[in-house]
Task: structure prediction
Amino acid sequence: MKNVQIGIKENIINFILLVITNFFVGSMVGLERTILPIIGEEEFGLASVSAALSFIVSFGFSKAIVNYIAGGIADRLGRKKVLLFGWSFGLLVPLMVIFATSWWMIVVANIFLGINQGLAWSMTVNMKIDIAKPTQRGFAVGLNEFAGYTGVAVMAAVSGFIASTYSNRPEPFYIGIALVVVGFLLSLLVKDTKEHLALQSQGASQSATLSAGEVFKKTTYQNKNLSSITFAGISTNLKDGMAWGLFPLFFTNAGLTVSEIGVVVALYPAAWGFFQLFTGTLSDKIGRKWFIVGGMWLQALSLWLILAVGSYSMWIVGAVLLGLGTAMVYPTLQAAISDVAQPGWRASSMGVYRFWRDSGYAFGALLAGLLTDILNVNWAIGLVAILPLSAGIVAAIRLSETLPSLSKET
Result:
């Protein structure tokens, strides 16, 4: 560990490799984002919205469970091994979608996508946090999420364009095979960060050794900061699970073409990704708490704006604002987790947080599908928006400032 240094500048090549790698991790999700709900309705004749959104449920629960497992495994085996293992599941996703003859194959493909994302994305963010100084964590996470959600946005737009030019299947999913190959090769070049983690762990308090059960309880409900962060995370992705499943259907009902839907659906994660370049860094300077509170409230207001307007240009504005609100919280929540958790159990705590956060995809799809089947798409979107509003209120009341330079608590 003689030559190991903590800091982004000191590890710039490895940091950049991790940023680029996460672009390809995010692209795997973007590949499906525009067209899979439409495939379910048009190709497989799924009349029930709940059935059509079952692929998001399978993705959300598998990603959530793997996030939880990945954190513990990474603390024991190292980050790079888990990252490479994650890519091994990625190739199954486009192949299964291309050759699917029934909807259950799409659902299973998204279980593998959840495993791929749970392992690969978790490791890119943990490795960046291992490298970064405490005052650089917001920037590190923000850049990681910027890269990932830029990948989501680019592939959402590209897949929508290809689908409108050729067909919904198989052409857009040929790109997925190339994404996996490039992502795996990049991950081979990444250097593991176990020595950086060991260096950060020196001098940590004795609470650095916690059992998996203790970390789970502390992150879920015992620690008021960690539990407030966790509730904000699950509310954010519950909203996103709804948006993923219902936006294509909502805008189809409004009369937009597949290509136009691709633009609106892509702009939301594009804004989400772009603004994280700034929000994570700003949270390193002015604090985490009010970024989280404001971002949760902006998400709710943006969803209600999308429902209130009726023009393509205003839907674009709503999508961008929704992305901004999400960008305000996404890197900040993960940076706040890393502020509170000790280095020895940080990846495990991050895994618990990401378990609950990404289970929001599944709960969001279930809730959105149920509300749409009982009421309609508009009501479903409007009611789901109550969750991020509530999480913002909880954070305003319970969450303390966690940024080390501003926090009274260590």
Notes: Residues 343-374 form the longest helix (32 residues). The chain has one domain: 10-196+205-398. The mean pLDDT is 88. The two ends are 26 Å apart (CA to CA).
